[in-house]
Amino acid sequence: MDFELRHAREKLEREQRDRMQRAKAKADRERRAKAEAARRREALEASHRERRLDAARAQEEAEKKIEEVMQLGKGVSFSHMFEALRYDGPGDKIKLPPSSFKELSDEGALDKGPMYFRLSMVRDTVPGATMEQDTEEATCCGVLEFTAREGSAELPMHVWNNLFRSDTPDVPLIEVKYVSLPKGTYAKLKPEGAGFSDLPNHRAVLETALRNHATLSENDIVVVNYGQLQYKLKVLELKPASSVSVLETDVEVDIEGSDSVLDNEENQHVLVPLATGKVESSVVEEGKFRYYKFSVEESVSEKVASGRANIEVKIDTDASGGDTDIYVSRHPLVFPTQHRHEWSSHEMGSKVLILKPWDSSSVSGVYSIGVYGFKGTSKYQLSVAIKDVSSQRVGEHASASGSVDADSVLCRNCKRHIASRSAHLHEAYCMRHNVACPHDGCGVVLRKEEAADHVHCNRCGRAFQQREMEKHMKVFHEPLQCPCGVVLEKEDMVQHQSSACHLRLIVCRFCGDTVHAGGEPVDARDRLRNMCEHESICGSRTAPCDSCGRSVMLKEMDIHHIAVHQKS
């Protein structure tokens, strides 16, 4: 009996304990479920709250962007993304699609004068990118026309290179914003290489290049072309803003010196100053130039023009090395070449070149010397000297005016006048050891052992030593092609590029710029006045006469003064 009661009691206790555990587990599950539901509810509310905040921030940024665009555009809101395409053209004016013209017209941009735009790259946000990096990948420009296909903008090389400096994406996207730019008052530029400051009137050359530009932005690279040479200048500073308009305004320009070293072998087009009477030593490789410059003062030019002094350019070349040629020109021809120069010397080894200006009134000025490596690597010493030849000329004049001795006979071999008492002895010796060159017009008397080395060019008739003939044929008779397409030999090419080539550089007598000459002018009167095509067009501009105020064409101004204002 006791056993059954105890067993029943234990069973009841176990059942009660199990019920309590189940009730406790159920309470725990309900508590965890409530906590999870509360957590999910809080997370959902936080997500909704974050989305509302993001939407508010996006709306605020959009409003700020619209406000910024409106401020930049002075009331004109234009900001679109386009695919960037390249086109070959000068300057910084882009092409936009026709729809952009309609939108800008509706915004009233056409009534605000020239239109300017700020271009920036569109790329994924990179963590850690700075505002400075973003600024470097933006530039400003003008607009050329609205003929691009929809969804794209065509950029000239200047804008493309300044916008995509590091790398070009597969599909370059850019953001184009209409902006209002102030007129520039000051610009500081710095050449990236040496040689730009050596150009004659380099500020006028820069001004001519900037005529194709509507804007300038800091850190932009401006490319200036001078003939076949190209110079790059970086914009360091602008006033009154970091991007300015250069249309219809006067900009004060400062050009800093370049950091490039003068003896940089990769840059051939650098003028090394050469003082008169000083010797410059250097090395030139085959097929390359080394350039120098020297000046002739007014006091010296008078002596040279009157024939009392000569300008001598002397080069001593190491005989064990290669061979050099020298080419000399007077500015504005800055860098003389094989087929564009005023004086040249092609003798083998050391040589002396005497400069005799074509116009005695234009002796003074700056001259350039080009030392060309004709063969091998050549070591040389170059110098320029002013030689007084007044005493030499007097002696030459006296000997030339002297009369032939009456008691003399003419040697039949060397054609020299010999005293009659020794004529037979001289003639016998002369015929045994000397021989006269049989070439028509030559008649040079040579030693018989040297006669075999004396040859004449079968094309021009010039006399040389045998070892010089190969160089002569290569320099003077090898066909050369002018950039304009004409193929001529050296001497004809020099004449062509100095007076006939429409791509030759001249200094315009009316605007002062260094420009391509162009072809012959249409007006026969301009041809009679020795004007080129550019000067004929440039001189057609009118200016008020200083005396009467009447508007007269620049090329007719001198005739106007003579005909109207010159007193009889």
From TrEMBL:
<dbReference type="Pfam" id="PF23580">
    <property type="entry name" value="Znf_XAF1_N"/>
</dbReference>
<comment type="similarity">
    <text>Belongs to the UFD1 family.</text>
</comment>
<dbReference type="InterPro" id="IPR049439">
    <property type="entry name" value="TRAFD1-XIAF1_Znf"/>
</dbReference>
<dbReference type="InterPro" id="IPR055418">
    <property type="entry name" value="UFD1_N2"/>
</dbReference>
<protein>
    <recommendedName>
        <fullName>C2H2-type domain-containing protein</fullName>
    </recommendedName>
</protein>
<feature type="region of interest" description="Disordered">
    <location>
        <begin position="1"/>
        <end position="54"/>
    </location>
</feature>
<dbReference type="InterPro" id="IPR013083">
    <property type="entry name" value="Znf_RING/FYVE/PHD"/>
</dbReference>
<dbReference type="InterPro" id="IPR055417">
    <property type="entry name" value="UFD1_N1"/>
</dbReference>
<dbReference type="Pfam" id="PF24842">
    <property type="entry name" value="UFD1_N2"/>
</dbReference>
<dbReference type="Pfam" id="PF03152">
    <property type="entry name" value="UFD1_N1"/>
</dbReference>
<feature type="domain" description="C2H2-type">
    <location>
        <begin position="545"/>
        <end position="565"/>
    </location>
</feature>
<dbReference type="InterPro" id="IPR013087">
    <property type="entry name" value="Znf_C2H2_type"/>
</dbReference>
<dbReference type="InterPro" id="IPR004854">
    <property type="entry name" value="Ufd1-like"/>
</dbReference>
<dbReference type="InterPro" id="IPR042299">
    <property type="entry name" value="Ufd1-like_Nn"/>
</dbReference>
<dbReference type="Pfam" id="PF21366">
    <property type="entry name" value="TRAFD1-XIAF1_ZnF"/>
</dbReference>
<keyword id="KW-0833">Ubl conjugation pathway</keyword>
